[in-house]
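We were asked to recover a plausible sequence for a given structure. The inputs and outputs are reproduced exactly as logged, with field labels preserved.

PROBLEM: sequence recovery
POSITIONS: 374
GIVEN STRUCTURE:
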């Protein structure tokens, strides 16, 4: 039996094989774009396919908007092309080319002879962390220059793994090595922290330990919502030092404790009735990820809670961000993978957690939350 015919995959396999023969037939495509009833569908499919083909040019238009500060300039009010060109230091023709491309993507819009911020541009300005993400994407795109080579060698070994020092050299990184990624994480934390805080009532706990807590941006947000909570942060020593400095300047060092160590080799401090892993688990391959969950389980008291927050695979309405974006991102980084909630819950069971549940968040595209009970 020929497997490409789909015959050995049951009814659904046969349907897929029939559909694909039809969709890939140039004759059917010619018919579908001409026939009035199928034309709208054909046009939408063609546009979707074009977006896949052209995606890099869209991303680079966005990168140019961020690098030149174009969107910030327009946030001050509409400007002429000449004024924009002067402010972002481009020749008039270059500025106009960028403005037109940005208009096509909804980042800016024209207002008579002037240019204003578009609705996508305005939304982007409301989330400063996204601009930081865009600015560091040149590392990702350098690694993805030859995606097949990257897939063949199993990931890593490029610009992005140099950025995330811990990814390929477990637990390593001095103060300078960790500064860039820690600052990126802190800048992109606000959107995540608010969602996690809305999803889970940390106030009901006495002591919270944020494992892989970076420079403490999440705990600083928790501190505001739960004034009575005692806070602990565990991260690599060089990152922990940055967190201590942040807690000092936020005036919350009296209620925080920073632990420097590696969760891959050191035990986690006991005495916390809640532990968080925010954007940590997906960084690690299955064996080290399970090791971290076991370490959390060992540190929690019976009934203690683990809150896992990160983007997950297979998210309804946001499937691309899981397996396509984070799948390739983490491949380039050289460690980890996005997991479905079902996979994470299975790992929690394997680590000894009695139960776990997925809790709704406002923007699952950016983060979902699973709460495990020891
Ligand atoms: C009044 C009128 C005219 C209309 C009203 C209609 C209406 C309600 C409109 C809504 C408009 C609005 C408020 C839109 C809001 C849009 C938002 C909130 C957009 C948010 C977008 C978020 C994005 C694009 C997030 C991107 C995140 C990225 C790329 C994250 C990357 C993370 C990385 C690389 C993490 C690395 C860490 C590691 C290594 C994986 O562990
Ligand atoms: C993607 S960042 C997330 C930071 C923070 N939770 C946030 O969401 O902004 C992952 C964090 O895990 C820390 N980390 C990585 N490997 C570690 C290890 N072996 N032991 C302790 N922390 C580690 C990194 O230093 C980094 O701060």
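RECOVERED SEQUENCE:
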């Amino acid at each position: 039996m020929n497997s490409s015919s789909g015959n050995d995959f049951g009814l659904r396999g046969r349907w897929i094989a029939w559909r694909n023969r039809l969709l890939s037939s140039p004759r059917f495509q010619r018919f579908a774009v001409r026939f009035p009833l199928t034309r709208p569908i054909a046009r939408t499919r063609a546009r979707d396919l074009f977006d896949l083909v052209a995606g890099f040019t869209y991303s680079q238009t966005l990168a140019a908007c961020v690098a030149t500060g174009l969107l910030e300039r327009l946030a001050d009010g509409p400007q002429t092309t000449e004024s924009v060109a002067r402010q972002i230091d481009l020749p008039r023709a270059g500025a106009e080319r960028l403005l037109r491309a940005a208009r096509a993507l909804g980042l800016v819009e024209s207002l008579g002879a002037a240019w204003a911020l578009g609705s996508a541009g305005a939304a982007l300005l409301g989330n400063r962390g996204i601009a930081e993400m865009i600015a560091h994407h040149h590392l990702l795109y350098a690694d993805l220059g030859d995606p097949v080579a990257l897939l063949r060698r199993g990931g890593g070994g490029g610009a992005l793994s140099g950025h995330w020092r811990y990814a390929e050299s477990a637990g390593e990184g001095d103060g300078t090595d960790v500064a860039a990624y820690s600052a990126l994480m802190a800048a992109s934390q606000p959107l995540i922290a608010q969602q996690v805080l809305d999803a889970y009532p940390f106030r009901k706990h006495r002591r919270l330990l944020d494992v892989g807590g970076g420079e403490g941006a999440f705990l600083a947000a928790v501190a505001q919502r739960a004034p009575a909570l005692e806070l602990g942060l565990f991260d690599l020593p060089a990152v922990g030092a940055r967190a201590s400095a942040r807690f000092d300047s936020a005036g919350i060092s009296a209620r925080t404790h920073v632990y420097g160590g590696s969760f891959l080799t050191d035990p986690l401090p006991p005495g916390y009735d809640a532990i968080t892993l925010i954007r940590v688990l997906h960084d690690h391959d299955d064996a080290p990820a399970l090791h971290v969950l076991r370490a959390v389980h060992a540190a929690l008291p019976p009934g203690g809670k683990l809150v896992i927050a990160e983007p997950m695979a297979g998210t309804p309405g946001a499937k691309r961000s899981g397996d396509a974006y984070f799948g390739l991102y983490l491949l380039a980084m050289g460690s980890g993978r996005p997991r479905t909630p079902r996979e994470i819950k299975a790992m929690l069971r394997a680590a000894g957690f009695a139960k776990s549940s997925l809790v709704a968040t406002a923007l699952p595209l950016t983060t979902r939350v699973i709460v495990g009970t020891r």
